[in-house]
């Protein structure tokens, strides 16, 4: 049986840019899929197709069992969406923004206000509840937007980079809200550029690059493929890079990655702190001077180096890479569907 979110062969091109190049996804009900990928990978485009904001050139998808292309209006009634860029009404206060969403969903004025206050508390916005959103900081808008997406709890939720721009405390708070939501049975697709976040929240991770899913699995499965911890060494002298590479190759597991200009070498390891001591001894024995050394958890870049042999890089297409270009255009297209998040519910 297809999951709560199911997509097959989604293709979407913008001029010469193949934003989606045959995306397949399946998210079982009540689970979280983390869509992990660098800038321009196609994460937002995937979310926009699945939330009916954008029609794919080909492929098919269902959300909550409903065909996204054939019955977009029904899909919208079953989903919640928090987009990559906060969509709050600048001229309303935080509380008004949230009660308005509640009212749009036919809540009574009392219920809408109660829910708004609950969420304002949750997202550490209670003190600012009476201020207009235009006086909010970026992180506060972000949180208000997320709160708005949670006024009603739809069976399927989409969150596009929900924690980008949040400070550690608020990121933690949001993680907890998400965990509660999911334990209540919600199915969630969330996009992120942080492996750590996907690891913490997602049952399953799909790694996307150039509009394709290049790897899939649980966080543990992916880690087993890419190796767990890394030892990272910065050598003092350029001439000693090769010698240091030899040491790391002998003690590590897998490819030794080199960042030439910073003289930084990285290798996956098993055995953590003990091995770190060994590496330091070997480097010392060979007289290799180091500026920095440490043990760290894998990052998105490590995932890409292991899976593709190259670091996660931005697309260098004419339409421009990264957050700017692709997403500015979001506002035009989103117009078709109203632009605000409730349009997608
Ligand atoms: N409306 C559009 N018009 C033209 N090109 C677009 C449009 N939307 C997206 N693209 C292009 O499609 C590709 C995928 O963009 P998308 O926004 O899906 O990436 P993303 O994975 O969400 O990246 P980010 O991490 O920067 O948010 C990019 O090359 C982008 O420039
Ligand atoms: Mg995006």
UniProtKB/TrEMBL annotation:
Protein name: ABC-type xenobiotic transporter
PROSITE patterns: ABC_TRANSPORTER_1, ABC_TRANSPORTER_2
GO molecular function: ABC-type xenobiotic transporter activity; ATP binding; ATP hydrolysis activity
One Pfam family here: ABC_tran
EC number(s) reported in the record: 7.6.2.2
GO cellular component terms listed in the entry, alphabetical order: plasma membrane
UniProt topology in membrane: Peripheral membrane protein
Biased composition regions of type Basic and acidic residues, renumbered to the chain: 327-345
Domain ABC transporter: 5-235
GO biological process, alphabetically ordered: daunorubicin transport; doxorubicin transport; response to antibiotic
Annotated region (Disordered), positions in chain: 311-345
Organism: Streptomyces carminius
Top EC class, one word: translocase
Location relative to the cell: Cell membrane
Similarity field: Belongs to the ABC transporter superfamily. Drug exporter-1 (DrugE1) (TC 3.A.1.105) family.
């Amino acid at each position: 049986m297809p999951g709560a979110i199911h997509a097959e062969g989604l293709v979407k091109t913008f001029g010469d840019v193949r934003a989606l190049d045959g995306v397949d996804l399946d998210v079982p009900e009540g689970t979280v899929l983390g869509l992990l990928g660098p800038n321009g990978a196609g994460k937002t485009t995937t979310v926009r197709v699945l939330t009916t904001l954008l029609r794919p050139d080909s492929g098919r998808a269902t959300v909550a069992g409903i065909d996204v292309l054939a019955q977009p209006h029904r899909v919208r009634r079953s989903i919640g969406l928090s987009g990559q860029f906060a969509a709050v009404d600048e001229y309303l206060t935080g509380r008004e923004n949230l009660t308005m969403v509640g009212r749009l969903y036919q809540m009574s004025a009392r219920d809408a206000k109660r829910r708004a206050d609950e969420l304002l508390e949750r997202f550490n916005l209670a003190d600012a509840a009476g201020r207009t959103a235009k006086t909010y900081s970026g992180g506060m808008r972000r949180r208000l937007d997320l709160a708005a997406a949670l006024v009603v709890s739809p069976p399927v939720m989409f969150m596009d980079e929900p924690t980008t721009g949040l400070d550690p405390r608020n990121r933690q708070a949001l993680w907890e809200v998400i965990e509660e939501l999911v334990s209540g049975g919600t199915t969630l697709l969330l996009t992120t550029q942080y492996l750590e976040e996907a690891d913490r929240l997602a049952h399953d991770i799909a790694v996307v690059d150039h509009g394709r899913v290049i790897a899939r699995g649980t966080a543990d499965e992916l880690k087993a493929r890419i190796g767990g911890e890394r030892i990272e060494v910065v050598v003092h002298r350029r001439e000693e890079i090769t010698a240091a590479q030899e040491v790391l190759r002998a003690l590590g597991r897998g490819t030794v990655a080199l960042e030439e200009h910073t003289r930084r070498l990285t290798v996956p390891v098993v055995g953590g702190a003990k091995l770190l001591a060994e590496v330091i001894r070997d480097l010392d024995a060979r007289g290799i001077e180091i500026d920095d050394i440490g043990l760290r958890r894998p990052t998105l870049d490590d995932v890409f180096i292991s899976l593709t042999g190259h670091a996660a890089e931005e697309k260098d297409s004419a339409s421009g890479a990264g957050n700017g270009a692709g997403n500015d255009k979001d506002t035009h297209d989103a117009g078709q569907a109203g632009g605000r998040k409730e349009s997608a519910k």
